[in-house]
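re the bet — no i am not wrong, look at it urself. input seq straight from the record:
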Amino acid sequence: MRLVFFGDSFSYGQGYPDCKLNSYDDVKAPSQFGWCPQVADILSCEYLNNSYPASSNQQILHDLRKYSRQPDDFIVIQWSYADRDMILNPKGITQIIPNFTGKLFERYYQVHSDHDMNYRSDLAIEHAALLLRDHKHLMLSNNRFYRPVDSLITGFEMDHCMDAWEDGHPGPMTNIEWAALVANMIKEKGP
């Protein structure tokens, strides 16, 4: 079994020294110390971390759709916040995040409501559930979604952190706890 992770900065390992960002233009490989590699260590299996800082649920779904799943892959998705989005263009992805500044972001949030963004996030999660219906997977939420999705597990929000880095991301103790929780959930589902 190989674990394949998708998510935002929480599963990327933001805050650890090996992937600390000065800006989103400075993205490196995901941390070797976050909860994702710790899950792989606990389960003694190889892993691939496709997480990216500031990802929206639409970007996570986009990355999942592009990824060529192997039969022995166990997919773990940690969903992001509903108020994020992406614009796909020929040059790549423009991330839409509330704290980003500029005319594009201001204009985007003028025409998109919380209702619209929650609905789009729900659609991304439901789409992923359909894509993975015949594949071993686990979906974790770091947000509170309005509509239930059968396989969505909550409890990975910022208010469930034992500690945090200076930049507010889950700290080492939280990553250890989350790794143990996720490893146990994967063991329950079986390889």
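see?? The chain is about 35% helix and 15% strand. told u. also Helices lie at 9-12, 35-43, 57-66, 103-111, 114-131, 172-189. so pay up
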